[in-house]
Amino acid sequence: MREEETSQEGGAMIPELERIFEHIEVQRRCLVDMVQEGRRDVELSDLLRNVQLESNCLTSELEVLTRQLEEATWAGQNDQPDVEGANPEPQEP
């Protein structure tokens, strides 16, 4: 009789165990998804940081080039008189 009861209990436990395993599998898939999403977030964060660094470098280079262009343009303008005849070339006596 005891053996028969154990067999019946075991048979009744199988559906319960299946539900537990299904629940565990759903939780596992959720965790896997969360880990993958976290990895994507880290990758996107790294990409954004690299883009910001590159942007800062390009901005600095642009500022240097703009300054050089302004200096070159200003130097060229100094060679020319501002108003016609205002800076005449010295003439020999």
UniProtKB/TrEMBL annotation:
Residues 72-93 are annotated as: Disordered. This is Uncharacterized protein. It comes from Amborella trichopoda.
